[in-house]
Amino acid sequence: MNEKVQAGKPLTTQPSLSLAELKRLYSDEDSCKALLRDMRWPDGVRCPRCNHALGDRVYNLSRKFHWVCKNIECGGRNGYRFSVITKTVFENTNYPLSTWFEVIYLMTQSRKGISALQIHRQIKSGDYRTAWYMVMRVRAAMKDPELKKLLGDVIEVDEMYHGGKAENMHRSKRRRLALVGAKGKVAVIGAIARKGNVVCRMVENTDTPVLDSFVRRVVDKDKVELVATDEHSGYRLLKYGYPHEVVKHSAGEYVRGIVHTNTIEGFWSLFKRGVMGSFHHVSKAYLPLYLAEFQFRYNNRKDPDIFYKVLAGC
Ligand SMILES: [Zn+2]
After folding, report:
1. 48 CA from centroid of ligand 1 (Å)
2. CA proximity to 195, closest of 270, 295, 298
3. If phi over 0 gives left and psi between -120 and 50 gives alpha, with beta otherwise, what is residue 45?
4. Packing angle between helix 29-40 and helix 306-313, nearest 10 degrees?
5. pLDDT at position 275 over 90
6. Phi, psi of 32, rounded to the nearest 5 degrees
């Protein structure tokens, strides 16, 4: 099987929910709030501040989906009032939850990502900044909490450079990039388990300590059978501890048996096409968020409930 093609078309699973179903099921605020309540507190409502359960000095208020906690930690008699959206990304927004749900849905179902501008058009938000704000908050909810070890026999590691190509850019953009870095390029390191998950992160440089320590953090040396990279010298110390093989791209070698980096390169091209097509330009400050979003979507590509998973992260 061609790994590159597979990496380029990760969304092979039909979502458990269609957009039409989403709009029908969660068209009004009450049904959205009921879903959030059930996902947030499957075993019954709890105070978000002190964690006491409903009934344990936590009371229903007459206003739906609102409660008050009168435990000592939460102010005793005066109490602490909270609602189903307290301490979620939906707090302090004037936008209906049904709109938020639609934004999350669109962001999870589009393979290459979707820009704030596309969201703005789709949900017909009055102000582009609103769409941008919503998209950034959802993106933050798609972040994996920690750098986990990859599972798989064969792991490919590669670095990617984002930005640059200043000669093709408009002069004003070029000037802005000049402030970012000498060449306007930012390095990203990634590792992918074939048919498994990907981890990637922005790095300050691609020197040996950076590349080497990244691999040692995400690849379990007792479980892996092959670590494949290109001939970048930053990987030369991996032979100490890892079954490391190199493809010599400079010599025109791209595949030698099972040794190749096509899967991770497929992920990079998915990312680049997504960024070029949907986002046009991603600054260094936001790059980690976009990487997290692409990583999340890739790692959950076979999960038909990806919409609910992101919602849970919110
Ligand atoms: Zn409380």
Report:
1. 7
2. 298
3. beta
4. 80
5. no
6. -65, -45
